[in-house]
Design a protein that fits this description.
- The protein has 209 residues and is α/β, with parallel strands linked by helices.
- Helices cover 36% and strands 19% of the residues.
- The protein has 4 helices and 9 strands.
- It has helices at residues 6-41, 67-73, 99-104, 182-207, and strands at residues 49-51, 77-78, 82-86, 94-97, 112-114, 118-123, 127-133, 144-150, 168-170.
- The strands form 2 sheets. Strands 2-8-7-4-5 form a 5-stranded mixed beta sheet. Strands 1-3-6-9 form a 4-stranded mixed beta sheet, with no helix packed on it.
- Helix 1 (6-41) runs antiparallel to helix 4 (182-207).
Length: 209
């Protein structure tokens, strides 16, 4: 008595094909999911330029001593942004100083000093930066500003942008860049796990061909 093995064989082939197709679809889904999560995890951020004080020639003795810092507190500065100081170079300048010198308006030991009248400073690290006027008596009357720069893990700034010029670089002398938070590290590890699973599944599917 003869038995036909054709139908069971065909069923096995179809099952194998369906399994391979399912694995390939699952791998593709994992890859797309991983890509989307990575895109969300890294801020799509376009660098901006901030005119210090919010308008032309704002780097001067303000009518209110807190004017410049009130402006700074309403902005969101991030790595990659630039600060633009516009002022009369014949009568004024910009000094970047330590926090202690900022509070006491001490001009003797600036970290950086600018006199060109149209100073653009590029921000390349997070932290606090302190600027005062180099003109006698100006800092004491409120011509100074504290700039606090957020890391990329913080919320994105509001969408406003100013014209671009050639910047200098701005690096805090003491304050280090913020370390990644544990939550973001966990998200990165989870995304990596998904990616590894997708790659492993793809390899399994290929090996079954």
């Amino acid at each position: 008595m003869r038995y036909s093995m054709q139908k069971p064989y065909n069923s096995l082939v179809k099952t194998k094909i369906y399994l391979q197709m399912g694995l390939m679809r699952f791998s593709l889904l994992c890859f797309v999911t991983c890509f989307v999560l990575l895109s969300l995890n890294f801020d799509a951020y376009e660098a901006r330029e901030f005119i210090v004080g919010g308008k032309e020639n704002s780097w001067r003795i303000p009518t209110d001593a807190d004017t410049l810092n009130m402006w700074a507190q309403h902005e969101r500065f991030k790595i990659g942004d630039s600060l633009v100081f516009k002022y009369d170079s014949k009568n004024d300048s910009v000094l970047r100083v330590e926090e202690g010198d900022y509070k006491k308006c001490i001009k003797a030991k600036p970290i950086e000093e600018y006199h060109d009248g149209n100073t653009t400073i590029s921000i390349n690290e997070s932290g606090a930066f302190f600027f005062i006027s180099g003109a006698d008596g100006h800092c004491e009357k409120g011509e100074k500003v504290e700039i606090r720069v957020l890391s990329h893990k913080h919320s994105s700034p509001p969408p406003s942008q100013a014209p671009k010029t050639s910047p200098a670089t701005l690096t805090p002398p003491v304050t280090p860049a913020e370390s990644p938070k544990s939550g973001s590290v966990g998200l990165d590890l989870w995304i990596m796990d998904v990616f590894v699973v997708a790659v492993a599944t793809t390899l399994v599917g290929i090996s079954m061909v």
